[in-house]
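Fold sample X.
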Amino acid sequence: MQSFLDVAERCAERIKRSSEVLVVSHIDADGLTSASIICKALERCGIDYSVRFVKQLEERVLEELKDENPETIVFTDLGSGMASEISSGFEEPVILDHHQVKGEAFRYHLNPHLFGFNGSTDISGAGVAYFVATCMSENYDLSALAVVGALGDLQHVKEGRLRALNRIIVDEGVEKGFLEVKRDILLFGKQTRPVFKMLEFSSDPFIPGITGSERGAIEFLTSLGIPLKDDRWRRWIDLREEEKRKIVSALIERLISFGESPKAIERLFGEVYILLREEEGTELRDAMEFSTLLNATARYDEAEIGLRVCMGDRGDALRRARTLLNEHRRNLVNGLKFVIEGGIQEMENLRYFHAGEAIRDTIVGIVAGMTLNSHVKGDKPIVAFAESEEGIKVSARGTMELVSRGLNLGEAMKIASQAVGGTGGGHDIAAGALIPRGREREFLENLNRIIGRQMRDE
C-alpha cells in the first residue's frame, strides 16, 4: 500500500510542476469521474487544463495527441494497455489507470495491478485519480466522485459493497462528512422515480411481469396494498420501512417462483452510497444513480455534458443529462428484450449474440452484463457484437466465479482480436474489442479456444 501511495505522490508532484495539462480519459462513468477529479484538483491548484475523451486508445489516437504537443499529458482510466508507446511518445507522461498493464512500468504510471491489487474489484480509475488528487491538496470532497466511478465500473458487485482501496475512499468520505453508507434496494430510481416506474425500468435483475410493464408494476404494488401516491407520486425514499420490506419480500418471492438464480436475487439488495452534499430527491444524491446518469451522457456521445455535471453544473448540463438518461434506460430495457427474444448462441466455452444495429455499440456491453446476470447461467462468459462506425464492437462479460477458475477476458480479447486484425483488452471479468466486419466467426473460434485453455489451466 505504501509503495502505491509513494507513486501517487510522485505523480501528483509531476502534475503540479505543470502550467498546462491535457487530460485524456475513457468515455464512460469511471472515465468521466476520473477526468473530473483531476480537473478539479488542477483547477484548485490554478493549473490550466483541457480534456479529451476517447472510446479506445489506439495508435491513431496517440498520433493525434502527439500532434497537439501538450506540455503535460495525463491519461485517466486508460493508458496502461499502451504504456510503452505512451512513455516513449510524450515528455514525462502520467498514466492513472486500473486496467491490465501491457509493457514496462515507468516513473509516473500508477496502476493497482503493479502493486498486487485487482483493478476489477479493488479500485477504479476514479479511485486512482482520487489518491493522486489528495496528494495534490486536501481534495477529500472528491471521494464522492471516486465512489460514483467505482460503482459505474460495477466494482461493488462481487461482495455487494466496495472493498480494498475503494473502501479506504469510502471511509474517508464518511469521516469527512461527504458520504453516508446504508443497506437498501439496489434498483435505479430510488431518489427520483415513482416506485412503479422504478420497478418498471428495473433491469438487473430482470423481474418477470414487471420489468418493461407499467401495468405489471402498478398491479404488483396494488396487490401489496402500497399506495401509489399521496399528494404526489410516491418514490422509494418516501415509503415507510415496513412498506419497503413488504416490497422486497414480494420481489424475492417472485424471482424465486420464476427460477431466478440466488446470485440474481442477491443483487436486489446491498450497500448504497449517499452523496450528502447533493440535493435529496435528485439523481446525484445516490452514487449508483449518479453513475448511470454519467454513463448516459458518455454512451450517447455527450461526455462533455457529464464532465460539466461532475464539475458542478446543476443547470443546463444536468437538464440535458436527465434527457439522455431517460433515453438510456429505455434503450437498455429494449435491448434486453431484443436479446431475450432473439436468442443467445452457445459454444463450448462461451455464449454470444449479435445485435447488429439493434443495440448501440456504446451500450451493448451493459446489455450483455444484464443478460448474464438475469437470463443465462453464469457457467460461461457472454460475448456481444454490435455495429459501430469503425467496425464491429465486441463486449465480453464474465463472473467472479469464472475469474477464480482462470478466466481473463482482457487477455483473451486482446489475443483473439489481434489475430483478426483488431484491437482489444480490459479486465479479467469484463473486456472489449474492435474487429473488422466479417471476421466475427473467426474471432469467436479464437476466443472460444483461448477461454477454454484458460479454464483448463486453472
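Fold sample Y, listed below.
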Amino acid sequence: MKIAFDIQLFLKGEKTGIAWCADNIITQLIKEQKHKYQLNCFTLKVEENTLNGLKKYETKGVVMKKCKWFHDVVYKLLCVFIPVPYSWFFGKKADVTQFFNFIIPPGVRGKKVTIIHDMAYKALPETVRLKTRVWLNLMVRKSCRRADKIITVSEFSKSEIIKYIKVPEEKIVVMPNGVNDSIYHINYSGKEIETAKQKYEINGNYILYLGTLEPRKNIIRLISAYSKLITINPNAPNLVLAGRKGWMYEEIFRKVQQENIEDRVKFIGYVAPDDSPKLLNGADIFLFPSIYEGFGMPILEAMACGTPVISSNLSSLPEVAGDAAILVNPYCSDEICNAMHNLLADNIFRQKLILAGNERVKQFTWENSIRILYSVYEKLMEA
C-alpha cells in the first residue's frame, strides 16, 4: 500500500498540538515500514532551516514530494473559487492520502482521510480568529463530503461533528491520541529539571499552565483563581504561564496587572519541545481549565510526568482525564482556587492523584492509535 501524507502544517513555524500529533503518527508509521510512504508539501518561499526539519522523515521507503514552484497559500485561496486538482502538484495517486488539519482539497486521487480535531469554530465561534472561522466554514463541510473516512480524537468530538456537519456516524472513526513516552516520563534528573527552570528563569516551586495564550484556554479565570489562592495562602507557589501568544492574548497580560500580581505570575513564552516534559516534571500542579478541547493532550503529558492535574470538566476533558484529575467547572474561579488549595494542602491526596495519572496514561499510546489508523486504511482498500 502507498500512503501519502500532507505535511504542510510542519512548515508553519513552531509545532503546536495538531502538528505534534501528525508528527507522532507519521514517525510511528514510518518506523514500522509496512508500506510505502510519500510526504507532500508546497515549499515555495519556505526557509531552508524549516525544510531541514523534514530530513528526519527521509528514511527507507519514504519519498519526499516537494512542490517548489507554487505557494500553499495561493493554492488554498484558489481552491475556494476553482477546484484546482491536488494531483497536479503531487503526481501519481497514492492508495490513501492522509490530511491532518481538517481540510481535504479538491482533486485528490485514491482514498482520502482527514483528521478533524474539534468543532470549536462552530461551538464557540467567539473564541476562534475570524479568518480561521471563515476558512473552516468555507471548507470543512466540503472536506467531509470528499473524505472516504474522517478520523477524530474523542467520542465528544465525534458527537460534535455529527451535530454541526451532519456527517453519518459510520463515516467517523475515533482514534485517541497517544503520549510519546520517550519524551514524557518521570525519569528526568533533578539537574535536568533545574537546568530547564534556569533557562526560563523560573525560581522555586511553581504551578504550571502550558498551552497557547488565547480565550478558549480560559486563562483569565485561571488568573482570577490564582489571585484568590494567594490571598488564602500567601506561601503558594508562583504561577507560570507557558506558551506562545495566540489570539487576543493582550487581555491575559492586562488581567495580571489588574490583579496586581505581576510579582507572582511569570510568562515564559513558547517552550521548546525538549524542555516541556522537564518543566512538567518540576511543577507542583498542572492547570488546564480550558472551556473547549477536542482531546486535551497536555493533561496526559502532565500525568506521564508525574504531575497532578486540575482540569476543566467540559467538552472532551473528562473523557481523557477519567478519575485521574481534579475536574472543575471552568467558569467558576472559586472552584479552580479551591482545587489548587486542596491539592497543595493534602499530600496524601496529591500522591493518590499522581499514581492514578500514571495508570491512566498507559491507556493512551501511539501504538494503539496506529492500529486503529491501519485498520481504517485496510478497510478502505478492501471496499
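Sample Y note: The first helix runs from residue 17 to 32.
Also: The mean pLDDT is 94.
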